[in-house]
Known about the structure:
It is a single chain. The strands form 4 sheets. A 6-stranded parallel β-sheet has the order 9-8-7-10-11-12, sandwiched between helices. With about 425 residues, the protein is α/β, with parallel strands linked by helices.
Amino acid sequence: MSGTATRRRASARRADCGRTALQTIPHSDREPAPPATAFFHPGFPPTRRYLGLLHGPGTRSETGINALSCEFGDTVPLFSCRGRFLSVRHHTSHLARDRHYRSTRYEADEADEADEASTLNIAIFGSGYVGLVTAACFSDAGNDVRCVDIDAARVEGLTLGDCPIHEPGLPDLLEANAQAGRLRFTTSAAQGVAHGLYRFIAVGTPPCEDGSADLQYVLAVANSKGQHMREQHLVIGKSTVPVGAADHVHATIASQLHARDARIAFEVVSNPEFLKEGAAVSDFNNPDRIVVGVSSPKATQLMLTLYAPFNRNHDRVIVMHVRSSELTKYAANAMLANKISFMNEMANVADALGAKIEKVRLGIGSDPRIGFQFIYPGCGYGGSCFPKNVKALIQTTAKVGYRTAVLESLEAVNHRQKKT
């Protein structure tokens, strides 16, 4: 079939496909169309609208509205992925035996109305490290994001294009999505609460004098939500908080609604972050897990919809109860801190016994159950997360009458290591 005839067939199908399901068409009358698989790449900004092939021949798309002629001569339906880039890989008949692939990119000629309808409105309270990374990545996925902060100077700087933190790739994402109109900054809590279904809390939780987490900023945001809420929405906790914090957030919002005599449905969800400094954008776009703590099937589905662009190649979402999700964040950091303190303890033991700790490290790290990460002896753990989280977990368990002997020991080892 000639290229002109193929293009005519493609154009004819564009005219009447609309939002209806589309059927793939074999690329020739002699052999079936080669199977195709779309691979999602969350790292590419949606500066242009790309579409990708469906999974194999005979498959259908409920959202695709386009079709075009590819290099094999097929006329194939396409589906959009919120304006994100899709790499399309074809098995070719002469390479299939060797399990090789040929890669091609396709760009759509027109916007997909279904893609526009899938844009989510997201409000993020807090423009610190976690809040900015979350805002940048969600807006880069094609969503309309409003970032709220009480610091007027910071909001003004962000609006002018200044990034207040150093994180590779973040300034470019902020600038690109702000220019595209998908990311805006404001000091108005009312505007943030009114902006869509998803409302994140990503403010700081500094330590109190006794080591417990200070929730005053989290509860201040919850108080604002209760005051300005006009319709049902999902409150998503992104801040690192002690177990039970979501209950306090829920009670604070409910109290404000009761004072207004307003009956508005809402749910509080826990969605802790696992971002590494220096790789936060990559971690968000390519997560090893997405922990979601919910109390209802509806909230589960809403969170799956929210994270769909970041969860395409593998199912990374781990759904659990809210309190389990809150503890997961603390437990993860405590485990990593424990490896550091343990290795420092072993380094001191090696010095006392005349052993070489580097050889010991290689010997134990070769065990895949242990691995090499976080087993380098040094001056101990520090930073903004590990010390605060370990102490907060110790205080949280103490309040329910349980003594965490292991956590207390690793904290003592870490304190001693800093002095030696």
